[in-house]
């Protein structure tokens, strides 16, 4: 009869080898979409073109440039 402790070591070694092999194969495989550049249309390429930095600068500037909690619980001004 075989020693049960020896059989467990053999299984552990086989599992370790299988895990190492699968890790190497996954790491070495090229990603299918790694070389493809993401498509960017011209409208979103320069999103800063849609920002108006002069909002609230005329007629006293009645806008608040910060975020406030609901129901006016907090509204710190700069």
UniProtKB/TrEMBL annotation:
Name of the protein this chain belongs to: Glycosyl hydrolase family 92 N-terminal domain-containing protein
Gene3D superfamilies: 2.70.98.10
Organism: Streptomyces beijiangensis
Sample GO molecular function, one term: carbohydrate binding
InterPro entries: GH-type_carb-bd (IPR014718), GH92_N (IPR041371)
Residues making up the signal peptide according to the UniProt record: 1-36
Domain Glycosyl hydrolase family 92 N-terminal: residue ranges: 50-78
Keyword Signal set for record: yes
Keyword tags: Signal
């Amino acid at each position: 009869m075989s020693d049960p402790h020896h059989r467990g070591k053999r299984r552990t070694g086989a599992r370790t080898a299988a895990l190492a092999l699968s890790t190497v194969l996954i790491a070495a495989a090229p990603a299918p979409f790694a070389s493809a550049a993401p498509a960017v249309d011209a409208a979103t390429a320069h999103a800063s073109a849609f920002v108006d930095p002069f909002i609230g600068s005329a007629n006293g500037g009645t806008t608040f440039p910060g975020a406030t909690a609901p129901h006016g619980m907090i509204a710190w001004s700069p």
